[in-house]
Structures are given as structure tokens and as C-alpha cells.
Amino acid sequence: MGSGTSTFVIRWINFLTMLLAIAVICFGVWMSTHHDGCRKSLTLPVLALGGFILVISLIGFMGALKNISILLWIYLVLLCLILVGILVFTVLAFIITNNGSGHSVAGLRYKEYQLRDYSSWFLKQLNNTKNWAHLKSCLVKSEDCNNLPKKYKTLKQYKMAKLTPIEAGCCRPPSECGYPAINASYYDLSFHPISSNNDCRLYKNSRTIKCYSCDSCKAGVAQYMKTEWRVVAIFNVILFVVLVRTSSSMKINKNLSFSMVPVNYLLCWMLRKKKCCQESFIQGLKMDCASDLSYH
């Protein structure tokens, strides 16, 4: 790839990344004006992420536009940090979400979830009184449970529904309690529960109580979080591969060719090609470490 083409590619990659960062920041600003406590709790992380991406993009864009060596060095160092961060987060995400799955119940099209099936990290977060108080208030405001009668107008429709993990865990008592359903939002609690599960005692038909204090509700939230984390982890794998491939294949002009050393060195180190890295670093990329790896 020629130096002009490479510089053009770097500029456009960072320009598109800047647009993405601006979109993330706008979303964060929108959340800050929203009255929902759940969205407000994510405002600062979203704004910080958008700002960090924007700063890195500006540094890389200006470095490529003006051929400023120091800016490209800073850009590449930050890029290396992002790669390491993505790698660490992805590994942890897969470890944390490895446990936990739903249990099929006869006569139901959806699954029920049990809190003990999930990782210790989820248990620690969800059993924390302060954390759960905040999450519970968000669940009450979300109207998920209160909307069930609108979605399923008859008892037959409700029994044939495929409820989400949160709806199955927070909006109804566990099936083992044996409470007969009157409609999508009301159960006959005059029956003595046939199970010793504490959730049977905690469930109430009140719109603000339901099963929000139940372990089944926490399990539903854990399943929702697990699904979201898995999606993010898979996206991070793709992002990591794209960033490594892009950074290891870019060539800057002759005066700045050494600027790609940090990324190539990181790539080689992660793949245990230390000798290759040392030669590449010393010779100023006389041999392309990433290209060498493709033949092994």
C-alpha cells in the first residue's frame, strides 16, 4: 500500500470513528435529560466512552493529516491500550457468563431461571442490597409487568406466551408455588403454596411489589445481563480482530514508518513471536512482523 493511500485510509477510518463517537456522546446527553433512573446511571460511562473514542480519533486523524510523528505515536499507544482493554474485558465477559441457563417447565413456552445457577460475580452484584434496590426501582418504572395484560388479553394467550426472562422472573410467582393464574397480572393467592420456595411468600399481586424481591426476579435480570454481555463480548471479538488486522497492515510514509512498531510488537508478543518482534523493533520494520506471522 502506498503512503498516500495509507494516509487516506487512516484519515477516513478516524473520521468515521469520530462520527461514531459523536453519536455516542449525543446518546449520553439524551440519557442525561431522561428521567429514567436506569438510563441516568449509565450517562457518565457512555459520555466517557464517547469522549475517549473522539479524542483518540482526533489524534489519529490530525497525525495522519499533518504527518506529525508524535501524534501518531500517541494514537498508536492509545490504540494498544484499547486492544488490551478489549481483550481483558472479553475474556472476563465469557468467564462470567459461562454459567446459568433456564429450566423448562411443563405446559409453558418460556423458561424459568434460578439464581444459584449463575456465576459468583452475578450473585454478588444482585444480592447487594443497594444495587438491587436501584434495579428494583428501575424494574417498577419500566412497566414490563404492568404491560402484560395489554399484550395478553386472555388467560389462554398468557399461558401460550413466550415471556422474557425478566417477565418470567419478576412479574409472576414461580410455577412450583402452584398459584392459579386468573389473568396476566393476577394470581389466586388464597391457595396454600405447595413449595417451600421463599419466592412464593414474597409474591404479591400489587403493581409495585409483584415478585421484585424474589430470587427468581434476580435470576431473570442475571439472564438478561448474561445475554447482553455475550452480545458485547462477541462484538468485542470482531472489533479486536478488525483493529489488529487494520493496525498491523497499515503503512505510513517513510519518515513515520517506525510508528507502527508498538502495534506490531504487541501483536507479536501476544502470539509469542518475541524474536520476530525484537528484530522488527531494532530494524525499524525492515521485516513486517505481522506478514511473517501469516506464514506460520
TrEMBL record:
Broad class of the protein's primary localization: membrane
Family recorded in the similarity comment: Belongs to the tetraspanin (TM4SF) family.
Entry keywords, A to Z: Membrane, Transmembrane, Transmembrane helix
UniProt protein name: Tetraspanin-10 isoform X2
Organism, as annotated: Nelumbo nucifera (Sacred lotus)
Membrane topology term: Multi-pass membrane protein
Gene Ontology terms: cellular component: plasma membrane; plasmodesma
Compartments, record wording: Membrane
UniProt GO BP: auxin-activated signaling pathway
Segments traversing the membrane: 12-30, 42-64, 70-96
InterPro entries (UniProt xref): TET_plant (IPR044991), Tetraspanin/Peripherin (IPR018499)
